[in-house]
């Protein structure tokens, strides 16, 4: 990769349509804004309408003539995912950015009864990608980019307890959900290659970027000391959210991105220009990725008939 790739290196996106989940704040907002700045039509797929429309206004103010629109999507509710795919999805889809996520929340379940981190970070995006796959397969040069995290290194999956019902430890559950993201990309890329498709599935992570993701759980539980700790980390150590979005933007737009690749800030994975990222060996395990795929189809009811083994 070229030294110092940045947002100015994004190729012209005119004529292309992108869906960015969780585009109302953090790296999702910056990802959507830069795609719009380079000419893409961008759908801001967000749970909260007020914040989604606010993000739409912010991008319009920052980018003259931006073609952006808020669309409702709640990844914690498979009914909402199906409605998005059936009602709001664009006829042509060049880029699907699976960006939305939650981190280290207290135990809770989604509308469909899944543990929240696994349900939102992995299953919601698995279902969304499956439902939008026909449009992606029909679009030459299309890509799916799923945002994982260096924190995937905290834990491999426990296939016998995907929803952390036996024992819930918030950071381990977060690590597992991010491992699931990487296993999903690994298996999706493998199946696309077998099917002879040129659709590129890749993964990215922001390193340590200053967003509200870190302190959201502490704020929910009024744990002020923890919230302050993360706010301090954001100020002192983290790179800005705009820099955290660069690996996603690289994976989505740079020429020659390899299927199944994992891009992060280099060289240490915390901050810096996009580069190939280290990943735990378990995220490339063909047996586990296939088992997770089958389990995900069963849990969500969303299958990928075009990519059946």
Automatic annotation (TrEMBL):
It comes from the Bacteria. It comes from Streptomyces atratus. Keywords: Oxidoreductase. GO terms for molecular function: oxidoreductase activity. The keyword 4Fe-4S does not apply. The keyword Oxidoreductase applies. This is NAD(P)-dependent dehydrogenase, short-chain alcohol dehydrogenase family.
């Amino acid at each position: 990769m070229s030294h110092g790739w940045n947002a100015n290196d994004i190729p012209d996106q005119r004529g292309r349509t992108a869906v960015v989940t969780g585009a109302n704040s953090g790296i999702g907002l910056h990802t959507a804004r830069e795609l719009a700045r380079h000419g893409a039509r961008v759908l801001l797929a967000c749970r909260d309408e007020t914040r989604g429309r606010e993000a739409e206004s912010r991008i319009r103010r920052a980018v003259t003539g931006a073609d952006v629109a808020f669309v409702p999507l709640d990844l914690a509710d498979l009914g909402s995912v199906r409605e998005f795919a059936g009602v709001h999805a664009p006829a042509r889809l060049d880029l699907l950015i699976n960006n939305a996520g939650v981190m280290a929340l207290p135990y809770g379940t989604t509308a469909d009864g899944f543990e929240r981190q696994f349900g939102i970070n992995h299953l919601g995006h698995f279902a969304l990608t499956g439902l939008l796959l026909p449009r992606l397969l029909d679009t030459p040069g299309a890509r799916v980019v799923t945002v994982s995290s260096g924190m995937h290194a905290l834990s491999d999956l426990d296939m016998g307890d995907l929803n952390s019902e036996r024992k819930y430890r918030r950071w381990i559950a977060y690590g597992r959900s991010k491992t699931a993201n990487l296993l999903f990309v690994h298996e999706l890329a493998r199946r696309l290659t077998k099917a002879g498709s040129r659709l590129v599935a890749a993964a990215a992570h922001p390193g340590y970027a200053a967003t509200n993701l870190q302190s959201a759980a502490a704020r929910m539980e009024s744990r002020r000391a923890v919230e302050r700790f993360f706010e301090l980390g954001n100020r002192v150590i983290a790179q800005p959210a705009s820099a955290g979005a660069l690996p996603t933007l690289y994976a989505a737009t740079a020429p020659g991105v390899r299927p199944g690749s994992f891009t992060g800030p280099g060289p240490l994975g915390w901050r810096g220009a996009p580069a190939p990222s280290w990943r735990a060996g378990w995220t490339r395990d063909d047996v586990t990725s296939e088992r997770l795929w089958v389990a995900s189809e069963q849990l969500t009811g969303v299958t990928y008939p075009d990519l059946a083994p």
